Amino acid sequence: MKAFLILEDGNVFTGTSIGSTKEVISEIVFNTSMTGYLEVLTDPSYAGQAVVMTYPLIGNYGITPDMESKRPWPDGYIVRELSRMPSNFRCEGTIQDFLAKYDIPGIAGIDTRALTKILREKGTMNGMITTNENYNLDEIIPRLKEYRTGNVVDKVTCTEKSVLEGKGKRVALLDLGAKNNIANSLNKRGCEVTIYPAHTSAEEILKENPDGIMLSNGPGDPKECKEIIKEIKKLYDSDTPIFAICLGHQLMALATGADTHKMKYGHRGGNHPVKDLATNRVYISSQNHGYVVDMDTLDPNVAEPAFINVNDGTNEGLRYVGKNIFTVQFHPEACPGPQDSAYLFDRFIEMMGGTK
Questions:
Q1: pLDDT given at position 83
Q2: Domain boundary among 94, 123, 146
Q3: Domain range for residue 70?
Q4: Which residue in 68, 249, 333, 335 is the catalytic one?
């Protein structure tokens, strides 16, 4: 069946429908990872977006147990060529069946290189995936321009508290759309991890007297999370050690008076170089974000830059003055992807007083 990707600038790409055949409007973003398509699909940070995979062949090892959450989250999935016969001893099914199971529409057979160049040159934009061959551009384009992602954290966060048992430090993880490997990275270092829904009050978290607090990644515009930002400010004031990743990093910055802004097309992929300003060492990182902390709005008495992106100089991490708090924009728990910055979890444990 034919499918069409219609962008808000009027560009139309024609391909083949994969997964669900429902019509969807979403923000169109691209990911440059060469492997790890399943981890991309199951990353809650993609809620509210349709993902373009720039690598030309996707699905060759099928669906494996390597999921970062309980289900896929993108609104749509866009590829150049989809492997129809995956081959891997761990394979449990195909991408097309996986998408259909979760009612996610996709499109294959389009020129993803040309599409990515449009998004790089003009910036991220909204689009529609449809199988309706009688589409009306004059009617669709105004709808695309009006579309807003909104607050998608509520869609992806857990609904109740849960605990990963451990005999080491006790960490409270605020689930803003957390990837499984954040909790697993702490747990394999001995930590007992208590996972809380995004709208849990600071008082409820602090009354358990955790050794440290982790703020997770998540989807959408950080400024949509107004109530969560208020609670994070209380966590900041508590003097409990805090480590934050991606959306958590942005929310901590907003809670302490800095600002964020939307990037032209964001950072999404597994090969982004970041520099640790304390050591001048460069690490290759996995990233997935469309917003960034504005370094011009940082109060130097509150926070100072800790990491920057080598490619474009944008902020990739903050160190908070007089506090046991540090935050990063990238994903040190990356799985798959580079493990270069996994040492940050060890730094967090040291901040909480070590492993004993």
A1: 94
A2: 146
A3: 2-146
A4: 333
